[in-house]
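Catalogue entry: protein

Sequence with per-residue C-alpha cells
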Amino acid sequence: QPQPQPQPQPQPQQLLSPSPSPSLFSLLSPSLDAAAAAAERTNAADFLSRKSAAESDSWFSTVKLKTATGLNLNSTLLAREKAHATPACGITQQVGGQDDKSVRCPAKCPVFAEHKDDGVHCDFRCVAATVKECTELNPLEPIPDIELGTCRACMVSGCAQCATDGTDTCALCSSGYDVTPTGQCQSKFFYVWVVVFLFFGVVLAVVLAWVISLALAPAVNTEVMQHGLDHRSRSKLLRPTEVRVGAEAVRLQRKPWQLSTNLCKTEVAGPGLQLQFNYQRAIIVWAFVVGIAWYVLTVFLDPELGRLGLHSGGTARQNCIVVAFGWNAQQRLMPTKVIFVACVYVISFILAIVFGVSQLRLFQSSDAQQTTHKDFCARCTGIPALTGDVKVEEELKSQIASTLQKEVVNVSVCWDYEDVEAELLQVLEQDLSEREKKRRGRRRRASRSNPVSPTRGAASPTAGGQSPAKTEDGEGKEARRVCWAFRKVEAALFSDETADLVNHAGESDGVNEKDVSAILKSLVCTGQAFVVFQTEAERDLAVQLSFQLGGVPFHGAQIKLEAADTEPASVLWLNCVEKTWLWKLKRIAGGFVSYSLAMSFWVFGFYAPYAYIILSSNYNYGQEASMVSSTAFTFVVVAGNALMYFTCSEIADKIGFQSADNREVLYMLLYTIACMLNVLLDMVVTYFMAYSMLVGAGFSTWNGRPLKEVHTFTARFETYAMQRSLGENLWVYSFPSTFLVPFLIEPVATIIGPFLIMKWLVRSHTGIKRWTGERLLTPLPMDLSRYADVLLNVMLAVLMFYFPPGWTHWIFIALACSHIVIYVIDHYRVLRCIPSCYYSSNDTDWWAQWMLSLPLGLVLASLVFKMNSMGIFRFTGYALIAVCTVAFCLHVLLHTWVLLRVVPRFGKQASSVLNAVQYRTCAQSHPVSWFASNPVFCLRSKYVYQHDPPCDFCITGKEHLLRLNEKQGFYFHDREADAEVYVEPESWTDFRGLFAELITEVQQLFMADNNNLIGGDGTDCEGSWEQHGSDSESLDNSPMASNRSREGGGAEDRLPSLQFGSLGAIPETTKKNDGQWQGQTQG
C-alpha cells in the first residue's frame, strides 16, 4: 500500500485538547471492533462525499481503508485530516467534538453560515461575505463578519430584530427600549439613570473635596490631636502587667504585643478570638489540600480534568464544537469526579469533627491554664428588688460570707439604670477628665524642672508632628481653607458656641453631686449580682454549698449562686435586667420584623431594578451586560452589604443580651444569613443571565436540541453549555470579587480612611476638646463577623463541584491564598489597630462549627447530583431537586447530632486540683474587673460608700487612672502606657527611613522565635519596674514619669509610627536612664 503523505501537525494552541489524539496502542493495533470500524467508514464516506471530485481522487490515492476486520494507520490519519482540513466552499458540513474550532474558511468564501433549514444541528457552510449569502441560510444573522469568520446577528443591546443591511443596527427594539436615529436601542429610563449617576457623582465629588480640604487645612488644634492619638495608642491591645516566671511574679509595663505573636496559640483578646484564628488557619489548610489533590489528579490521571469547562467558544461553529466535546469528555471523566467528590465529603466531614474536638479541647485547656476574673466570681440570682438607698453590696457580702463561711472580696450588683444612663456616664467621664487635668499639671511642673531634649519624631506642644510655621497665626490661616463652604459648616458644628453640645462629657459642668446621689438612691436592683471570692477553690466550694443549702437567705429571698461563665469585659451591664418572657418575645419579634423589612427593602429596592436591567439586555453572540448594569451591580452589592451590616448590628444590640459573646453569636448568624441570601440572589440573577446569553448565542444541547426549547430547570442545569457558563461565572464572581477585593478595601474603609479624616478634623478645629478628640480618634472595635466571611467563601468554593472540573483546583487554591492575605490583615489589625476587647466564650465558634454543615451538605448534594448525571440514579425534574435537598438536610442533622453528642465526649476532663491562686494576683494584671467595669458600682463607691480612694471606672486607654484600694478589692495600678509617635514624613529621606524600619519589623515577624521573645503567655519578659507609691498618680511623680512627659520632650519613650499608620507603630530602640528598667528594641 502506498504510504500516506505526512500531514501537517496542528499547533498546540489550535487544538481544543490533546485527548482526541490517537494513542500508540490505537495506531499499532491490527484490528478494531467491527462496529467502530463501520462507524469510522461511514464517517469517512460522508466526509468524502462532501468534497469535490478532484479532491476525492487525491484523497483516495493517499488514504485507503482496510477490510471490515480492522483499520490501519491511514484510518486514524483520515479522522485527523477530516478534523483539521480547510472546508470547501458551498459544502455543508456537520461539526462535532472531534473538529478543530480554529479552522477558517477559504479566502473566496471567508465566513461560516449555519444552515438552519436542513433539520441537522451544527451544519455549517462556507459562503461569500455578503448579506445575501448569510441570510439565505439563516435570516437572523445578516452580518458577514470576516474578522470572526462567521455570519452573525447585530450586536445592539436591547435589540429584538436586526436590520438587514449588514450593519450593527437594529430595526426593532425590545420592550423598554426605543430605536434611536442611528439604529441603536436606548432605554426608556436612560435619563433616569443619568440623573441617578449624576447625583451620586456630585455626592462623591463633594465628599472628596471635603476630604481634600481637611487634608490641606492648617493645624491649629495639635495639642488635642496629639492627646487623641496618645489615647488611641493606649486603647489598643496591650500585654498584661504581670507574668509568672517560675515561682516569682515579674511586674511589667503594659506594652503592645509583638507582631511575631502567634494568635493561634496566644490569647491576646480572650480564647474566643484565638479560636477564630485557628478556624481561619484550618480553612486555609483544607482549601489547599483539596486544590492540590485535584491538581495532582489532572497531572497523573488525565490532563483534561484540569481543562474541562475552560474551553471557550465564540462563533456558532465554535460553540457547537465546545458543547459536543465537553459533553463527551464530561461523561468520560464523570466516575473520576464522583469518586473525588465522595472522598472530599467523607474526609472533610471527619476532619470537621476532629477539628471541632480540637477547638473544644483548646478552649478547655486555655480556660484551665489561664487565671482570669471569671474564675473567682459567682453569679447571684434571685435578689429582691431593693432600692439604691439600701447598701446592698455590703449586706450581701456579709450575708454570703457568714452563711457559706467563705471570704468574699466584694460584690458587684446589677442595677436598672437605662433611663439615666447618659447622666451617669457623663458624671464618670467628667470625673476622669478632672483627674487627667491634675495629672497634666503635675507633668508640666515636672517637665520644667527636668527638661529632656526631644528626639526624631517627637511631637512638640505647638506642632504635634507639624512644622511650627504652619501653626503661626492659626486663626488667620484656618480661615484660608481650600473651600470656604466646608469651613462654614465645620465651624457651625465645632465652634466654641456649640462646643458644650459636642464635648458634653469631659468639658462641661455636668451633674452636681446632690443630683448624682439622688439618682443612685432611686435606682432599683435587677436581681443579679457578681460575688468575687479570694480563690477559685473557695468560689467552687461556695457554689456547691449554696446548692446544698438551697440558696442563701437575703431579705426574705433565697439567692442562688452559680459559677460565672463570662468575663467582666464582656458583660453588658445595662442589659443585666431580669425581664419577662413577654418582653423578650417582643424584642425578638421586633428584631425579626426589622430584619425582614431591611431584607425586603434590599431585595425590592435594589435587586429588583438590577434584575430587570440584566434580564432585559440583549445577549446575542456572547454580549455581556452593559456598563450601566455592571455599575448597578457594584452599587447593589456595596449598598446591600452596608445596609445588612448595619441592620444586623442594630438588631443584635436591641435584643438585650447580657454578654457581648452572646451578642456576637446572634450578629454572626444574622450576618451569615444575609450574606447567604445575597449570594443566592446573585446566583439566581447569574443563572438567568447565563441562560439568556446562551439562548442568544444559539447554543444547543449535545444532541442538537436548541437550548431555548429546554424548559425545566433541572434539564437546563444539566446541559453542558449551562454547566460551563455557570462554572465560569462562579469563578469570576468568587475570585477576586468575593474572596479578596472586599478584604483589601476593608482596611482602607475601616482603619486608614476614618483615622486620617478624624485626625485632620480634630487638628483643624479649636472647638473640638480633648474628650471629643479621644472619641473621634478611637479605633473601630473588633467583632467576630470573620466567621461569616469564611463560611461564605467556603460555600462558594464547594459550589464548583456542581460544574465541570476545570475550575476546581483554581477556586480552592484561590480560596486558600485569599484567606492567607485575610489572615495577615486580621493579624496586623488585632495587634495594632483595634481597641482592647475580650471574648471569653466559645459559643460563636461552636455555631461556626455547626455552620460548616452547610458547605458539607452542599458537597453531599453535589455528589448525589453527579451520581445522577453518571446514571447511577434516574431522577429527573423536581424529583432530582428533592433528592439533593434531602441529602443536604440529612447531613445537617447528622452534623448537628455529632457536635452535640459525640464531640463533647472527647473534651478534656476538668482538673480535680483546685486552683489556689489569689484574686489579688489576677486583678493586678487585668484592669477590667467586676467592679471597675460596672458604672453604677463605681458611682456608689464614691457617693454612697465614700471609699477613699473610690473605685474608678475603667475606660479603654485610661487604665492608668485606676487607683489602689486593697481593702475594697481594687488591686490594679499601672503607669501610663507608652504611646506611639505618629511621624508624618516631609521628605524622601524621612519616608525611606520609616520604610526601612517597617521592613526590619516585617523581617523580625518572620524570623523571630516566639519562645525567645515572648513568655509563656505571650508576654515580653525583658524587664521589670518597681512600684513608686500606692496608686497610679504617685507614679507620675517619679523621675521616670517626668522624663516621659511630652512637655519635657521625653519622646524617646515613645514608639514612632507612620502618620497614616493607625495600622500600627514602627518601633525603634527605647532607652531608659533611671537604672530601674532597661528596655530593649521591640519587634
Q: What stands out?
A: The first strand starts at residue 93 and ends at 94. Residues 1003 and 1027 are 35 Å apart (CA to CA). The chain has a mean pLDDT of 77.
